[in-house]
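[job 0417] fold request received: Adenosine deaminase
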Amino acid sequence: MGIDEWIGRLPKVELHVHLEGSLRPATLLALARRHGADLGAESAEDLEGLYRFEDFGDFARLFLAGLDVLRGAADFADATAALAAELAAQNVRYAEVTTTPVQHHRRGVALEEYAAGLDEGRRRAREEHGVEIGWICDISRESEAPDSHLTVGFLLGRTAPGGVVGLGLGGVEEGFPPEPFASSFARAKAAGLAALPHAGETAGPESVWGALRALGADRIGHGIRCLDDPALVAHLAERRIPLEVAPTSNVALKLVKDARSHVLGELARAGLVVTLNTDDPAYFRTTLNDELRIAHDLHGFTRRALLDAQVAALEASYAPAATKAAVRRELRDTGL
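[job 0417] inference complete; emitting structure tokens
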């Protein structure tokens, strides 16, 4: 069996994918038409051109256009179902999907409406596509004042969606260190939620140390800059703290020159727990299958290493026990 077919058949788990970054052209166009929004394109094919960007500014403009069409419960449900269909086509059995409440709250979307859409989308993902979803709701560093506790208050309130597994921290790292958000993470952890912040993506090891020490991070989103500090690498390896690595995202945002230059192989050789992810798959024009192929072709991941990475993602996940057991059996039965 060729590697493409083998990767396609491999049961998968994804831990780092943003709902708001998953809107493929067809989905974005359908939502825009629902609301009469002008995207400057008449077809999904025309819209494809907007999904090519040269820098973070271009990406941000596209991302904001996607946010604008997420206005009501039906929009969030449809976006979630569209993502689930794409995941199912790649044999993803379970995904932890990040979404950012403050991005919608500040646009005037009622959080009750937002939560209802997430609940319906999660139901459809399971019933229509066989994909189980756990939600990570993340704080946007630059958009939420640390003392507002907006996101954690939403998660611990009566209108929170079902299936939330953790609190995240995203957005701009430079100038927005993790430490000021410690009280939100303390409240989340006291309520049984995992601490799942981004760190070490654009900022250095101090960002990862801050996430570990101040937030009690259970996993690290990205974490590629950990390699700048051997003591941090040793700590992450000893404590078996997983990294959610997204190579194509790092290339698209100019954090590394190209896929071959990525530190993915170095992270694995350092004995770190590495999982493979897509981050914003629509806007970075990637799939989880693509990320596995990059690992295989450019960074020395054998079929066994790819399988082990999926086992690592499953064990690092907060999937329900029955889901974990079922996927564990599938992975155990996967031939090389």
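[job 0417] notes: The chain has a mean pLDDT of 95. The radius of gyration is 19 Å.
[job 0417] exit 0
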